[in-house]
Amino acid sequence: MTTRQRQPWTLERHKIAAKQLFDARNALGTMTVDLGHSYSVNSKALVLACKAQRLLDDLRDQLDDLLADEQREHFSPSIYYPGAAD
Predict the structure, then answer these.
(1) Do residues 75 and 67 lie in contact, with contact meaning Cβ atoms separated by under 8 Å?
(2) Alpha-carbon distance 86 to 4, whole Å?
(3) How far apart are the C-alpha atoms of 19 and 51, rounded to whole Å?
(4) Helix (H, G, I), strand (E, B) or coil at 3
C-alpha cells in the first residue's frame, strides 16, 4: 500500500482560512455577548460559546504557526491576525 504525499497549504489557502476564522470568531463573539445579556454566566450555552471561541483561537494559532514554519518567506502575522505588525 502506498501513501500519498500530503502537500502543505498554499499561501492562498491560508489566506482563505484566515478570513473564514476571523469572520467566524467575530460572529461567535457577537453571539457570546448576546447570550451574556440573556442568560447567566453559568448557562451551558454561554459556556460552550466561550469554549468554541477559545478553540477557534487555538486553531488560528496553530495555522499561523504552520504558515510560519512552512512558508517563512511569505509569512506575515497579519494574515491570521489582521492589524498585527509585520
Answers:
(1) yes
(2) 35
(3) 20
(4) coil
